């Protein structure tokens, strides 16, 4: 059997089993390619010409075993492999933190925030950092910056520290325990936040895969806005005068607009839609 045939087989099996995607991949084909390449220990950017080589019986079995585990356990593939990728950067991941997939990574990579940043900016905060992916991406995008990475989960912060060290950023990215802004320190030019924002109704309908992620990372209360209310209230005290807040709200735009009807926001376009990541200035928060 060739890797291409294995990928086709796995893709069909994943589809037939009705597994859920959205935690690193968006389709059965992508998930199958990731699964097979991982099992074969081949890089994700493997030349597609080599997918027609024959694989050994042992390698084929390794891929089929991983496929069976993925289907039977409904564990997200990233937890089974211990690795997730965001904007081409690799992160350690395990069940102590959300699997990195924030759309804020896109706006950092595409430079969508840059026109809003004071050129003298030096300090950023990744509030609700989880496994630290956004803090790491910020530090890689802005090599002179100091980035604080705060979270209420000591478990998630342990993963963040692994990722900070994996990318050699210990001198510029600092993971610290904090409930909201409780232990935030100083004024930030940029605050990014991918908070728990899933509303109660959506929480009750989550596919099995998402139940493997920490509830604390997902659940935002009845309308998804529990954490965001406090965030918007307290953020100005931790922002420089021309500081900005970049906030992910996923599919919660209706709840957001109901909760904050007169707040002036700028929508940052992403591959998942135009109303899932918002930019808010300090001035808008104060007015
Ligand atoms: C949606 S996850 C985002 C994780 C990471 N930023 C990412 O994009 O992958 C939300 C994170 O918020 C954290 N969190 C929940 N309540 C918090 C609070 N009151 N203060 C700080 N962090 C909190 C959770 O532990 C979780 O890591």
Structure notes:
This protein is α/β, with parallel strands linked by helices. The protein has 2 domains: 3-81, Helicase, Ruva Protein, domain 3 (Orthogonal Bundle); 83-286, 3-Layer(aba) Sandwich (Rossmann fold), CATH 3.40.50. 37% of the residues lie in helices and 19% in strands. The chain has helices at 3-17, 28-40, 57-73, 77-81, 104-109, 133-141, 154-166, 200-203, 215-218, 226-234, 253-259, 282-286, and strands spanning 83-86, 89-92, 123-127, 146-151, 173-177, 188-193, 239-248, 266-270, 273-281. The strands form 2 sheets. Strands 5-4-3-6-7-9-8 form a 7-stranded mixed sheet. A hairpin with a 2-residue loop joins strand 8 (266-270) and strand 9 (273-281). Helix 1 packs across helix 2 (28-40), helix 1 runs parallel beside helix 3 and helix 2 packs across helix 3. The longest helix is centred in the N-terminal third of the chain and has 17 residues, at 57-73. Residues 97-98, 100, 102, 128-131, 133-134, 151-153, 156, 178-180, 194-196, 216-217, 227 line the site of S-adenosylmethionine.
Which regions contain 5 or more consecutive residues with pLDDT less than 50? none
List ligands, each type once. S-adenosylmethionine
Strand order of the largest sheet: 5-4-3-6-7-9-8
Q: How many extended strands?
A: 9
Q: What helical percentage do the residues reach?
A: 25-40%
Shape: globular
Based on the structure given, which CATH architecture of the largest domain is correct?
3-Layer(aba) Sandwich
Q: Note the quaternary state here.
A: single chain
């Amino acid at each position: 059997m060739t890797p291409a045939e294995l990928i086709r087989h796995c893709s069909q099996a994943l589809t037939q089993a009705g597994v859920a995607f959205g935690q690193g991949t968006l389709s059965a084909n992508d998930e199958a390619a990731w699964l097979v390449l991982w099992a074969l220990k081949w890089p994700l950017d493997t030349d597609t010409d080599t997918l027609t080589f024959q694989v050994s019986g042992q390698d084929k079995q390794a891929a089929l075993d991983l496929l069976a585990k993925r289907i039977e356990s409904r564990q997200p593939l990233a937890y089974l492999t211990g690795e997730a990728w965001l904007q081409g950067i690799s992160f350690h991941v395990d069940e102590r933190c959300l699997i990195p997939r924030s759309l804020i990574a896109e706006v950092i990579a595409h430079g969508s925030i840059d026109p809003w940043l004071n050129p003298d900016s030096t300090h950023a905060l990744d509030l609700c950092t989880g496994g630290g992916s956004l803090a790491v991406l910020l530090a890689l995008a802005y090599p002179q910056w100091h980035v604080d990475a705060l979270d209420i989960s000591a478990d998630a912060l342990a993963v963040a520290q692994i990722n900070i060290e994996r990318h050699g950023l210990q001198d510029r990215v600092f993971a610290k325990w904090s409930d909201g802004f409780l232990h935030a320190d100083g004024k930030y030019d940029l605050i990014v936040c991918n908070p728990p924002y899933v509303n109660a109704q959506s929480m009750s309908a989550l596919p099995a895969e998402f139940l493997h992620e920490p509830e604390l990372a997902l659940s935002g209360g009845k309308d998804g806005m529990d954490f965001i209310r406090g965030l918007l209230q307290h953020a100005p005290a931790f922002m420089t005068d021309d500081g900005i807040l970049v906030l992910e709200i996923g599919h919660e735009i209706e709840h957001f607009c109901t909760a904050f009807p007169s707040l002036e926001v700028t929508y940052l376009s992403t591959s998942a839609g135009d109303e899932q990541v918002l930019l808010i200035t300090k001035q808008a928060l104060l007015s």
